[in-house]
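Q: How would the structure tokens look for this protein?
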Amino acid sequence: MSAITAASSSPWQDLATSAALAGLEALWHAPIGIALVDTEMRYLRINKALAEMNGVPADHHIGRRVQDVLPADSEATQAIVRRIEHVLLSGHPLENVEAEWESAGPTRQNRFTRTSYHPVRNGATILGACIYVEDLRAQRLAEQQRDDLLERERHARADAEAAAQRLFILAEASHVFAEASADLSKVVNAVVRLVATIIDGACALSLLSEDGQEVTQAAAYHPDPEARAALEPLTLGAPHPVGEGLTGMVVRTGQSLLLPRVVREELLVALPSAHRAYAERFTPRTLMIVPLRVYGRVIGTLQVSREDAERPFGPTDLVFLEELADRASLAIQNARLLTREKEARAEAETERARLHALVTQAPAAIAIMRGADLVFEFANPLYEKFSGRMGLVGKPLREALPELAQQPGFVEVLHRVLRTGEPFVGHEYPVSVDRRGDGALEEAFLNLVYQPMHDAQGRVDGLLTHAVDVTELVRARRRAEALEQQARRRAEFEQQLIGIVSHDLRNPVSAILMSAQMLLKQEGLGERAFKGASRILSSAERANRLIGDLLDFTQARLGDGIRINRRCASIHDLTCQVLEEIRAAWPERDIQASNLGDGEGQWDPDRLAQVVTNLVTNALRYSPPGTPVRVGTRAEVESVLVEVHNLGQPIPQELLPHLFEAMKRGPQDGERSGRSVGLGLYIVHQIVRAHGGSVSVRSAETEGTTFTVLLPRCR
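A: Here is the predicted structure in token form.
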């Protein structure tokens, strides 16, 4: 019997025994969780505090095993069971084990506790275990505060980047993490060396990639130098997918792996191919792999092995390795956080320096002014060059640039930005600047932005000026506008003059034409007089056609375009009629015609005859004598096509885009007789356009030149 239950030998001993029992009973009502379990891990007694942590009423615990009360599918429950087994088997307590686990019940809340496991003995016999559970919510709160500090640090970095964008030079950080603690490589190598020394075996640490898809061995250590040299090529070598090999399986499942006795053949099959050569030479005889976790998330694995089959790993070793893995995980996470913070700080400094250099060398005048007096805090070289002043920093605007401060509305705009916090954008904003410092003001124009700047409390305390000198652009545009207006007036005058002249010439030319026709009809006209009258008639007809072209050109340019009068007509009949007239004027040339399909549509026949005449005459003029000119009309569903083809020298490629513009003539026009002033194809294009159609041309050395007119039927 224990000393407490033994019979007392005196009243004082009875009193002490009673007090001890009362104290033990009072302990069960303490806020710390307490439970007694037997060797089968069945609850014999549990206090209210631990029952509430478990999420199950106290009376529902009694007689049930720990793994039957807590969530059986929880890794944390399995770890608790392993720790109790360790205490029951070894007879040694486990104290101050910090762990995160889930309670039972419908809510299954997360718990974070520090637990001690003590064996309950009766002499040399272990009757069970006593479990003391301390709620570490305060510790979790401290961790949360640490996370809050990291979050505030992230915001501080964001503020530093924003400050760099506003051209402020930030003071270097006063607090810097120790270089060793920020070096992930040093941390993982220290972990494997320490664990290998403690376990007395080989140790390897693998890390999960950022995307969670691959596992890479980050560090490894073996006490034997020869084996250590063979391990080095595997470190930071080719990664293997999650789920492949033993480490990949542990990462995927999140479950620890204990192999007290390793079967060599099975191990070689389970390992990634890159690790098999090492395992064949230094075959592990016992192996453990546990996941590395940070707040429940697997970030890698910690693996230990021995080549001595006489010292196999057991459950106690696995629990111990899991505890080491928990601490290693925190060290790795801290190293990562510190490394990321250091990298972020370096990036912010680089960005700040790059931005400062960019602003200094920017092709714009940039300055920062602070306070109601608009004191210059920064001015880049271009700003000083534009203002004609050096050493602006530290001076208020009225002292540094008095001519700007005295201009009406200039300072008021700046103060409005400070007062309202709204930016000001000025396009070709006029200013007068004393660039030479002799009092002579020069007019300049700026595209500028006044951007408000804020202090740490969000109040506007300054503004940034970004200005681009567009004085020369404004002056050049004004000169161009004046020249354009002058050219427009000249063109309008020329077009009106052409219209007036061509209109006034029509009557006298008509009179000449009529007189020549009457003269030719007289009988007894001599040969010389007949030839002279014929030349007059031919010249008058040519002049009449030129006047018609000029009037069409004037109407197209100055009016609403060439007018058309639609009526039913056949494109086939119209084309044949025109070709008959052209053949009479060009009897020596071979003009071939073809038609296909229904050529009926709503068009202006007179205008289309003008189109065909111009295109065919153009083809005859530019094709070699003795070569045919082919004219084809072809019907489609909603439109008809007119194609005029001739052989000969192709149209130069550089002329094709401008062929249908007014006053554009071919390079050989000057060598050929005729009436062309460069309006024929322009008028063709305008007539076709008035019909809602299109005209195009293709020209090549081998296939000749083809003009194609597309006309909608408009039925």
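Residues 1-9, 162-180, 670-676 have pLDDT under 50 and may be disordered.

The two ends are 122 Å apart (CA to CA).

Upvote if useful.
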